Amino acid sequence: xxxxxxxxxxxxxxxxxxxxxxxxxxxxxxxxxxxxxxxxxxxxxxxxxxxxxxxxxxxxxxxxxxxxxxxxxxxxxxxxxxxxxxxxxxxxxxxxxxxxxxxxxxxxxxxxxxxxxxxxxxxxxxxxxxxxxxxxxxxxxxxxxxxxxxxxxxxxxxxxxxxxxxxxxxxxxxxxxxxxxxxxxxxxxxxxxxxxxxxxxxxxxxxxxxxxxxxxxxxxxxxxxxxxxx
Length: 230
What we know:
Blueprint: E1 17-21, H1 28-35, E2 47-48, E3 51-52, H2 55-58, E4 61-64, H3 76-86, H4 91-104, H5 120-132, E5 138-142, H6 150-165, E6 169-174, H7 177-183, E7 186-191, E8 194-200, H8 201-205, H9 214-229
Parallel strand pairs: 1-6, 1-7, 4-5, 5-6
Antiparallel strand pairs: 2-3, 7-8
Helix pairs in contact: 3-4, 3-5
């Protein structure tokens, strides 16, 4: 058996953009799945604003999973409104917000198309909107930039920055380090299921030479961790 996450302790500051970083297989998705109660941890506790996580609290989180999935035969506007209803919005409000989000993401002209007629990038925009349509206080995005072209990537980054500016806490996992470097004010670097670097990005940087990139910090930290465990 493999121990996916071991004694991992995270404190995500309210209103921050928090990057959960690490190589493939480090335990990022498992950690997120535990926060979302998809996988239950063997020990420890998960708190949201000091309250133990339960199914009711989980509804206050917007979640974009790594495994994307939409109903391919549904029309785009109907699907996004449906996702809003699933997240607790009344039908008229869900429809109103869905139309606003499609306009915002440049998909208004695709509203009556079936989901299967959209490109993968467009489908990802719909799923992103569905994760945040109910204006959650915490948004968790698992590898949100995978498969996006540069224009869509910039749109996602702008939306993430705007959400944080409004006071929303954003946590996202990624191995695309330039995006993390641009967006995050806090990071946690996970390797082999354990946190090996955690804190404000500027404080983490201060431990290294001034011109060291996040990618260099990442690589040297993971290498040092592997040497220590060898």
